[in-house]
Amino acid sequence: MSKAPPLLQIKELARPMLGPVNLSVNAGECLCITGPSGGGKSLLLRAIADLDPHAGEVLLDGIPAQDVEPEQWRRQVGLLPPESSWWLPQPGDHFHNGMPVSLEQLGLADSILQQPVSRLSSGERQRLALLRLLANQPGVLLLDEPTANLDPDNTQRVERVIADYLDRYRAAVIWVSHDRSQVQRVASRHLELDHGAFRDQAVELHT
Amino acid sequence: MITLSQFDLLIASTLVLLLALISMRMRTGITGQLVIAAIRTALQLTLIGLVLKTLFANVQLGWVALLSLFMLLIAGREVMVRQERRFRGWWGYAVGTFSMFLSSFAVTIFALIAILGNDPWYAPQYAIPLLGMMLGNTMSGIAIAMDRLTHAAWEQRNQIEARLMLGERWDTAISEYRRQAVRSGLIPIINAMAAAGVVSLPGMMTGQILAGAAPVEAVKYQILIMFLVSAGTGLGTLAAVSIGARHLFDKRQRLCLDRLRER
After folding, report:
1. Is this complex's ipTM strictly greater than 0.90?
2. Parallel, antiparallel, or unpaired for β A189-194 and A203-204?
3. In the CATH scheme, what is the homologous superfamily, with its name and number, of domain A8-199?
4. Of the partner residues A51, A72, A86, the one whose CB lies closest to the CB of residue B165
């Protein structure tokens, strides 16, 4: 049986303060990236989502980003920033594609969709932003500290939802986290990024 | 028409001098600027009077075009410096100037040919004042709108990028700020039209009446000017905001705030 090619391939990706970086992530894999602040983690995610100019190549299913319309690419390679943004009065106004995950699974009540965004807590917004991203059904999730504002219970819910999503859609995740114990829980592989380069210690965790 | 003598103007200038004296006494710190501005008014207007006199004496398209170009370039510079976060490099100058050129020149030429129907159509007595009024108003509209647009892009970058991250196109991601920018560029002229004749008597009309024109004729000209100016300002603002909004993104639809100047 031939081995399936990696879902996401990053070749010689470089930008100021980062890289060149080479990386592959397989379908169903959760790659955790840790490292000190300013080490380049967010810069890496933004470059993969093609939000900033960069050198090198990023391929999804063997197709380079340049060959895909940018909006199409970003729907496939979805980035969740640490702070969520909302531009319409109610969270529900931001959902057009239905929801692949129920609000309940994220510990949210249905009525939250009709509340003014300004009245939601940062943790509620964070979880809703994850839901909004998943509604696009991206093949690759780029998560930048997705549980930074959450209490332990909700952190656990988010971890479970993402794990389910990975299984169900054969997606891949690159997960930036500062929480060592979280990395132990969710990562199938763990890399440390410092000064724009990976430390030479790819740690294989559970599969 | 009562002709003004130099002495009449001298009397009027004593009023400004009086104001200057008082403001000096009060240490407002603006006396210098006031006096310089007053002197500039006298000099610049005298100069343009002489230019127009010469121009009226030899009606040639080339000279009219040259003066128009000069006016356009000055107005372009004015639009540029009024924006806090303008585009870097020549773009900062070109967006406004090009949009003004498109709208002001098109509307002015249209009015000269289709409405006034003078012979020749470029007769400077009509062409230059019309263009001047068009440029003056379009300039403000574009400057306000562009300032608003670039400001919003800077302040709301997280929101715009969040929309890009969710797979929206650049034009959807910035649509709300584009609309707001156009609106704010158009508000002054809309207000001016709404208040005309009730709150304010527009300067052009007042000038004509002072110079002896029949009020009804002056009013007709004023209405014409108001319509032309609103069309020109609107089109110019739309053009500038459209070009500007596109230039905030690169080919891969990334928000490029490095194209804006730091404050």
Report:
1. yes
2. antiparallel
3. P-loop containing nucleotide triphosphate hydrolases (3.40.50.300)
4. A51
